[in-house]
Amino acid sequence: MFIHNVDLHFHAGQERQPDVTLGQYFDYAQKTGRKILGVTDHYGLYFPQREITRRCMYKNSLDGLIEYREDVEALKSSFPDITILFAPEIGPRDDLKSMPSQVIDMSDYFIAEPLHTEGSIDDNTNSFISRLYEISDFMQATGKPIYTAHPFRSAINHRLIKRKIEPWVTRIVYRDHWGDFSYEEIRDFFMLDIKRVAKASRKLDIPIEINGNTQYRTRSSNLPAALQILWAALGVILDEGVDLVPGSDLHGFVAGVGNIGQYVPVDCFEALGIEYDDIRFMKKIL
Q1: How far, rounded to the nearest angstrom, does the alpha carbon of residue 37 sit from its chain's CA centroid?
Q2: What is the pTM of this model?
Q3: Helix axes 62-75, 22-31, angle to 10 degrees
Q4: 56, 59, 105, 133: most buried, per Cβ within 10 A?
Q5: Whether residue 219 has pLDDT greater than 70
Q6: How far, in Å, CA of 95 to CA of 84, rounded?
């Protein structure tokens, strides 16, 4: 088994492309080499905290999530070469304590987004770690494995995507090797004390995702040093002994198109020297 064969973050529910069936999503997954597939959807699209205006494939309710889960289950026999798992993605402000027991029972594992803030390094770090402890309590109470998704998405969005690129970002110097950045440079770029976050993740045994969608957004900045510093940040997490897991965060299968056709970031795993057998999380979910 190789890293590109494992995709633990594959959206195929509410945000499915128009006129594309769930079976076609799975067929695409199979044709693109995915052998272990974590099928997900945003929990908040079934238990909304505010009115949802986007088009959804299922009801915005527990019944809708159950129907999605049943659709996934019904297709498993048509794809015997893929191990298909079900893993809802919990948003940073979703109340874990109020999750219905039916959702817990139907899930093989969970994906949890960190709490994203735009404060100081200390504020961001404390918020992230606080959420890790909430996730840990949920994991202990339910017995379900869980990992933290795209830990650097917020910083990448704010530094490179959703705002004008800040001038100092363009002054990050491309290095001979991604490991040549100082910790201070990495910490200040992401506005996060990554070592503290990693130590808490290791203590609580919560893996962290290397996310294909985040990789894509970073590459799209056309700043090679930005991708280097992202890998450097993930290297800091690895050095603290945290388990790193692969997920594309794919929302559709038009390859290479924006937020739709995402890839399992095998390039980052290779750079960090991580192989399939190194991923401890796989033993928990298989």
Answers
A1: 13
A2: 0.94
A3: 50
A4: 56
A5: yes
A6: 26
